[in-house]
Protein backbone atom coordinates (compact mmCIF):
# COMPACT_ATOMS: atom_id res chain seq x y z
CA UNK A 1 0.00 0.00 0.00
CA UNK A 2 1.34 3.43 -0.94
CA UNK A 3 2.43 5.74 1.88
CA UNK A 4 -0.53 7.85 3.03
CA UNK A 5 -3.23 5.80 1.29
CA UNK A 6 -6.14 4.59 3.34
CA UNK A 7 -7.59 1.14 2.58
CA UNK A 8 -10.38 2.50 0.39
CA UNK A 9 -8.00 4.49 -1.79
CA UNK A 10 -5.62 1.53 -1.98
CA UNK A 11 -8.41 -0.86 -3.03
CA UNK A 12 -9.96 1.55 -5.52
CA UNK A 13 -6.59 2.18 -7.17
CA UNK A 14 -6.34 -1.50 -8.11
CA UNK A 15 -9.87 -1.78 -9.51
CA UNK A 16 -10.82 -1.17 -13.13
CA UNK A 17 -12.77 2.00 -12.28
CA UNK A 18 -11.45 4.13 -9.41
CA UNK A 19 -14.33 6.63 -9.45
CA UNK A 20 -17.01 3.91 -9.47
CA UNK A 21 -15.25 2.13 -6.60
CA UNK A 22 -14.75 5.30 -4.57
CA UNK A 23 -18.35 6.45 -5.06
CA UNK A 24 -19.71 2.98 -4.25
CA UNK A 25 -17.78 2.59 -1.01
CA UNK A 26 -18.32 6.15 0.19
CA UNK A 27 -22.08 5.90 -0.42
CA UNK A 28 -22.13 3.71 2.71
CA UNK A 29 -22.21 5.45 6.09
CA UNK A 30 -19.62 2.98 7.45
CA UNK A 31 -17.02 4.12 4.92
CA UNK A 32 -15.22 6.33 7.41
CA UNK A 33 -14.43 3.21 9.45
CA UNK A 34 -13.51 1.20 6.37
CA UNK A 35 -10.61 3.53 5.68
CA UNK A 36 -8.59 1.60 8.27
CA UNK A 37 -10.57 -1.62 8.75
CA UNK A 38 -10.47 -4.27 6.03
CA UNK A 39 -13.35 -6.28 7.53
CA UNK A 40 -15.72 -3.31 7.43
CA UNK A 41 -14.53 -2.55 3.90
CA UNK A 42 -15.25 -6.16 2.92
CA UNK A 43 -18.75 -5.99 4.41
CA UNK A 44 -19.46 -2.80 2.47
CA UNK A 45 -18.20 -4.22 -0.83
CA UNK A 46 -20.09 -7.49 -0.47
CA UNK A 47 -23.30 -5.81 0.72
CA UNK A 48 -23.25 -3.29 -2.14
CA UNK A 49 -22.79 -6.14 -4.59
CA UNK A 50 -25.52 -8.20 -2.95
CA UNK A 51 -27.96 -5.26 -3.01
CA UNK A 52 -27.30 -4.88 -6.74
CA UNK A 53 -27.87 -8.55 -7.51
CA UNK A 54 -30.99 -8.80 -5.36
CA UNK A 55 -32.52 -5.83 -7.19
CA UNK A 56 -31.65 -7.34 -10.56
CA UNK A 57 -32.79 -10.89 -9.73
CA UNK A 58 -35.87 -10.12 -7.65
CA UNK A 59 -37.18 -6.91 -9.28
CA UNK A 60 -35.71 -6.15 -12.72
CA UNK A 61 -35.57 -9.63 -14.27
CA UNK A 62 -39.05 -10.79 -13.20
CA UNK A 63 -40.52 -7.52 -14.49
CA UNK A 64 -38.74 -7.82 -17.84
CA UNK A 65 -39.64 -11.50 -18.21
CA UNK A 66 -43.30 -10.82 -17.39
CA UNK A 67 -43.40 -7.91 -19.84
CA UNK A 68 -41.98 -9.98 -22.70
CA UNK A 69 -44.25 -12.93 -21.94
CA UNK A 70 -47.30 -10.65 -21.92
CA UNK A 71 -46.32 -8.86 -25.10
CA UNK A 72 -45.09 -11.79 -27.15
CA UNK A 73 -41.56 -10.39 -27.41
CA UNK A 74 -38.52 -12.08 -28.89
CA UNK A 75 -38.05 -15.62 -27.62
CA UNK A 76 -34.24 -15.40 -27.63
CA UNK A 77 -34.41 -12.31 -25.37
CA UNK A 78 -36.87 -14.08 -23.09
CA UNK A 79 -34.66 -17.16 -22.86
CA UNK A 80 -31.60 -15.00 -22.25
CA UNK A 81 -33.33 -13.19 -19.39
CA UNK A 82 -34.42 -16.50 -17.86
CA UNK A 83 -30.84 -17.74 -18.08
CA UNK A 84 -29.62 -14.53 -16.46
CA UNK A 85 -32.07 -15.13 -13.61
CA UNK A 86 -30.23 -18.39 -12.92
CA UNK A 87 -26.84 -16.70 -13.26
CA UNK A 88 -27.81 -13.99 -10.78
CA UNK A 89 -29.13 -16.64 -8.37
CA UNK A 90 -25.66 -18.20 -8.55
CA UNK A 91 -24.07 -14.82 -7.87
CA UNK A 92 -26.28 -14.39 -4.79
CA UNK A 93 -25.12 -17.80 -3.49
CA UNK A 94 -21.48 -16.81 -3.93
CA UNK A 95 -22.04 -13.52 -2.14
CA UNK A 96 -23.74 -15.39 0.72
CA UNK A 97 -20.67 -17.66 0.85
CA UNK A 98 -18.45 -14.58 1.02
CA UNK A 99 -20.46 -13.18 3.94
CA UNK A 100 -20.31 -16.55 5.71
CA UNK A 101 -16.54 -16.65 5.27
CA UNK A 102 -16.20 -13.11 6.56
CA UNK A 103 -18.36 -13.93 9.59
CA UNK A 104 -16.29 -17.03 10.34
CA UNK A 105 -12.95 -15.30 9.69
CA UNK A 106 -12.25 -17.93 7.00
CA UNK A 107 -11.97 -15.42 4.18
CA UNK A 108 -9.38 -17.14 2.03
CA UNK A 109 -11.63 -17.68 -0.99
CA UNK A 110 -12.93 -14.13 -1.51
CA UNK A 111 -10.77 -13.75 -4.57
CA UNK A 112 -11.97 -17.01 -6.15
CA UNK A 113 -15.60 -16.26 -5.35
CA UNK A 114 -15.26 -12.79 -6.87
CA UNK A 115 -13.92 -14.33 -10.08
CA UNK A 116 -16.78 -16.85 -10.09
CA UNK A 117 -19.20 -13.91 -9.92
CA UNK A 118 -17.57 -12.40 -13.00
CA UNK A 119 -17.92 -15.75 -14.81
CA UNK A 120 -21.65 -15.84 -14.01
CA UNK A 121 -22.06 -12.29 -15.32
CA UNK A 122 -20.22 -13.11 -18.55
CA UNK A 123 -22.43 -16.20 -18.98
CA UNK A 124 -25.51 -13.99 -18.60
CA UNK A 125 -24.21 -11.45 -21.12
CA UNK A 126 -23.23 -14.12 -23.64
CA UNK A 127 -26.63 -15.82 -23.38
CA UNK A 128 -28.19 -13.43 -25.87
CA UNK A 129 -28.00 -13.72 -29.64
CA UNK A 130 -26.97 -10.15 -30.29
CA UNK A 131 -27.49 -7.11 -28.13
CA UNK A 132 -28.13 -7.85 -24.48
CA UNK A 133 -30.68 -5.86 -22.47
CA UNK A 134 -28.56 -6.76 -19.43
CA UNK A 135 -25.34 -5.02 -20.52
CA UNK A 136 -25.57 -2.01 -18.18
CA UNK A 137 -26.51 -4.11 -15.16
CA UNK A 138 -23.87 -6.71 -16.01
CA UNK A 139 -21.20 -4.03 -16.42
CA UNK A 140 -22.06 -2.62 -13.00
CA UNK A 141 -21.94 -6.06 -11.42
CA UNK A 142 -18.53 -6.74 -12.97
CA UNK A 143 -17.27 -3.48 -11.45
CA UNK A 144 -18.71 -4.47 -8.07
CA UNK A 145 -17.13 -7.93 -8.29
CA UNK A 146 -13.86 -6.22 -9.16
CA UNK A 147 -14.12 -4.21 -5.93
CA UNK A 148 -14.75 -7.44 -3.99
CA UNK A 149 -11.69 -8.99 -5.62
CA UNK A 150 -9.52 -6.00 -4.73
CA UNK A 151 -10.76 -6.15 -1.13
CA UNK A 152 -10.03 -9.90 -1.07
CA UNK A 153 -6.39 -9.11 -1.79
CA UNK A 154 -6.24 -7.35 1.60
CA UNK A 155 -6.75 -10.78 3.21
CA UNK A 156 -3.95 -12.53 1.29
| CATH architecture descriptor name of one domain | Up-down Bundle
- Count the beta strands: 0
- Counting DSSP H or I runs of 4 or more residues, the number of helices is 7
Mean pLDDT value: 92
Helix content: over 70%
Structural classification:
mainly alpha
SSE order, one letter for each helix or strand:
HHHHHHH
The parts where pLDDT drops under 50 for at least 5 residues are none
- Strand portion: under 5%
Main beta sheet strand tally, sense and closure = none
Report the radius of gyration as a whole number of Å. 17 Å
CATH H level, superfamily name of one domain: Invertase/pectin methylesterase inhibitor family protein
Gap between N and C termini: 13 Å
Keywords: Disulfide bond, Signal
GO molecular function, one term: enzyme inhibitor activity
Protein name: Pectinesterase inhibitor domain-containing protein
InterPro entries: Invertase/methylesterase_inhib, PCW_Enzyme_Inhibitor, Pectinesterase_inhib_dom
Characterization of the model:
By secondary structure, the protein is mainly α. It has a domain at 47-155: Butyryl-CoA Dehydrogenase, subunit A, domain 3 (Up-down Bundle), CATH 1.20.140.40. It is built from seven helices and no strands. It has helices spanning 7-13, 18-26, 31-34, 38-71, 75-103, 110-126, 135-152. It starts with 6 loop residues before the first helix and ends with a helix. The model has no long low-confidence stretch (mean pLDDT 92). Residues 3-151 form the Pectinesterase inhibitor domain.
